[in-house]
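Retro notes, item 3 of 5
We never archived the inputs for the zinc ion complex last cycle. Fixing that now. Sequence and ligand:
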Amino acid sequence: MSEREITITLADGSQQRVLVGTPAVEVLCGPSGHIPAELIAARVNGKAWDLARPLTEDAKVEPISWDDPEGQRIYHHSTTHIMAQAVKALFPETKITIGPAIDDGFYYDFDRPQSFAPEELERIEAKMREIIAADYTVQRMEWPRQQVRDYFGQHGEDYKVELLDEFEGDVFSCYQQGDFVDLCVGPHVHSTGRINAIKLLRVAGAYWRGDEHKQMLQRIYGTSWPSEELLQQYLHKLEEARKRDHRVLGRQLDLFSISEMVGPGLVLWHPKGAMVRHLIESFWREEHLRRGYDLVYTPHVGRIQLWETSGHLGWYKDNMFAAMEMEGQNYMAKPMNCPFHIQVYQSKLRSYRELPVRLFELGTVYRYERGGVLHGLLRVRGLTQDDAHIFCRTDQIKDEVEKVLDLVFFMMQSFGFEQYKIDLSVRDPKDRQQYIGSDAVWDQAELALESTLQHMELPYARAEGEANFYGPKIDIKLVDAIGREWQLPTVQLDFQLPERFDLTYMGEDGQRHRTVMIHRAILGSVERFFGILIEHYAGAFPVWLAPVQARVMTITDRQRDYALQVHAQLQTAGIRAEADVRNEKISYKIREAQTEKIPYMLVVGDREVAAGKVAVRVRGGNDLGPMPVDECLAKMREEIDRKA
Ligand SMILES: [Zn+2]
Ligand SMILES: [Zn+2]
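Structure as it came back at the time:
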């Protein structure tokens, strides 16, 4: 058989003819075989590909480097193979399961009766460095099912056999480096020496398949970076994040708790946390009223028929709390507020003149999340969405989306978030079947979202195929004080629910027309937003949000009456103030107030009493010296108004 040629198109558009079976690396780097340090893998017709893997058809071939999220995933995932190789070398009785890449790192789940001790992690890390230094080629092999089965069966790797039995197909890729073989779709870096700086972080228990009835495994987390400098930066960021952990600060500042007796994922707001929530919610509510939204309240449960009509029973049932029966009727706790707002809209005939109708609510919903994924305030089972639904005409979409985005940025800036990233999620043009609604409506909606972003001169990334099946959306990620990204605000068009509930309005032409529905949330949920806010501010809330804004402290008992008088004056002026007139050393009182992250500490001694002043210290240690109470009040008032 004569050797066939294929046409390769490179990223710059240039083309070349090569023989079938030419490895991707050869068209990217030339025949010299030298692979530049930054090159991690190839992308062949859009699919990530091992550098050494042969090309088999006409293809567009592009390099994947560290700057590419896919490149980071491959890098991290390749490191997890090295970790598994090291574990098998040191502890041969351990069984391997799966080892995916995660954000900024990777893990691998091992079956081993005992946990890995810290010194064992160090040994694994040292072994990984040996494997990296040995620079084993990572070789892709394609084996028939029986060969894979025999190999892992003979090596006692039951989990791999179990996985294999669930996969469809006849041929499977296995990857080998040194004497270590793993069943994996790949791709990986070219050789183990391509991995540079590594660090194993921690061990946690994890059930096989996330199922608490199955085997408990040992999950080792780690991270890897192309340079020692980047690794150190990342470890520093982790350390910062650890110090800001909202679960630790939540306890320390007495903001909230979660009681096993009440139930996992159900938050108890303590007075100080509840005060911050009240302030967030009041601000949020007032701003919505100012911007033409109408406030509604809706129940926490609804009849099962409602959830049938909305479709939640079809596609969301697994996340809903079980039904409860009353007088022969079944009710379910709401996982979303949408159907209730729809019922408010539908309570009367709507004319085109009334639209848009903007209904908003801080609606508490209940969603089942597996016990293993619950995480402080960030992943809970009872959450309060800052929800709104806008019912409008097609020609109003653009205007409404622009107004929503304007509100989003106003709110986010008020909470100290200055940086963000925007994704516009649209249909997969190759698979239009999976979406509900006509092409014409989708085209119009996608265009409306995109032209709004352009009109507002907002940078965004277009995510093809990331739209909901019921409509396109805009998602916004906020960047917090230490550079972490949080997905919060979302604006989603919906063509499904208006059909299911037959939402209409009476047009100018006297005919009924289909209403467009926009779901939008800004904070996401109050619980999660509060968790993020605690970490963003490291618990030191700005004065306008601080549960206690000022504390008056006496140096001795002699200033007691004066301190209480100042305290009363602050309270009358609307400041959330406390008085500490205990018989304790002033240094102790100040230290305690610092730990509680109270923004203003007003110290009174004999001199302050005589002069009718307070000595002002601000959180962080700055001593502003003595000033009249009025002056201090004015200073605080200015900061509160500025939301500083
Ligand atoms: Zn792999
Ligand atoms: Zn909704």
